[in-house]
Amino acid sequence: MDFRLNEEHEALRQSVREFAREVVAPVIAEHYERHTFPYDVVRQMGKMGLFGLPFSEEHGGMGGDYFALCLALEELARVDSSVAITLEAAVSLGIMPIYRFGTPTQREQWLPKLISGEALAGFGLTEPGTGSDAGGTQTRAVLDGDHWVINGSKAFITNSGTDITSLVTVTAVTGTRPDGGKEISTIIVPSGTPGFTVAPGYSKVGWCASDTHELTFDDCRVPAENLLGERGRGFAQFLRILDEGRIAIAALAVGLAQGCVDESIRYAKERQAFGQPIGRYQAIQFKVADMELKAHTARLAYYDAAARMLAGEDFKRQAAIAKLHASTVAVDNAREATQIHGGYGFMNEFAVARFWRDSKILEIGEGTSEVQRMIIARDLGL
């Protein structure tokens, strides 16, 4: 085994690292404080080809792989998670369903602008009353002639209300299976469709420069050909998308954890206490060493899961392990980085304050830590 990056992946990592430091870092604190979406940053990410990293050149992508996307997410999250989650959700949750399950016509219609970063797409799975029970979908879609009529609501949907959001794919109950269970299908709903309402953005604890809304559908009519994939396979499709997305979230969490190490080292070298830099005290050294240990092992976990996915092997358990471990490490490192910074760690002008606020959602979004433990245990035969 060789965990070192090849030349192409290393070049990508360095390029995104420079972009994060030179373009994102100088402006993100203001966006975060004002809860504004960083359109200019997203536009530049599109020009860099970041939204097209794991997609074929045939569809306007960069011809890379999913691991390349993960590397980019890690480097962005070392500076800011709002920008990183915008990319992660846009690719893993927005583009991937259409890329994986769309018809040639759907791909031709939607992929060019999504892959170029000119437009964003949302992923409408979670509902206000279901949370982790995604199979408990209440939103319904009835086929009326050559249109689907959708009624219901979705919650916590990223990239669903920006000025460049072009569509949201939603899961909805479209009938009853032979065994009596719900037939859940996936339908593309373009932005601006009558009956599709985007609520004002949430007031969130963290990810304050990302876009998140509740969505409602009130007799929302879309063409029958907007069905994404096979009817009745919507839930299974999204489970596959979530398995992949957990590797991406793990990479983002590793980036946050490593950013905490970066900021703590910088601060420990500059901050003076009792006549010398605090980095000379063993108490601080041990904290930073433990933080680096956790970030490093979490990185190996998502590297392993990504390698298995790209090799065509089963990776569900490894993705859950990576997501569970990396999100835990992110929260741990954010807490320790805040402690190292003392009172300044409680001030929003310092990056670690953002890291602390952003870390907790990583144990919740795209499958809670409890769900990851269930996946792991079941895969072990329990």
UniProtKB/TrEMBL annotation:
Cofactors demanded by this protein: FAD
Keyword terms, alphabetized: FAD, Flavoprotein, Oxidoreductase
Domain spans labelled Acyl-CoA dehydrogenase/oxidase N-terminal: 6-118
Superkingdom of this protein's organism: Bacteria
UniProt domain Acyl-CoA oxidase/dehydrogenase middle: residue ranges: 123-220
Every Acyl-CoA dehydrogenase/oxidase C-terminal domain range: 232-380
Entries under Gene3D superfamilies matching the protein: Acyl-CoA dehydrogenase/oxidase, N-terminal domain, Butyryl-CoA Dehydrogenase, subunit A, domain 2, Butyryl-CoA Dehydrogenase, subunit A, domain 3
Keyword Flavoprotein appears in the UniProt entry: yes
Name listed for the protein in its UniProt record: Acyl-CoA dehydrogenase family protein
Naturally occurring in which organism (per UniProt): Micromonospora sonneratiae
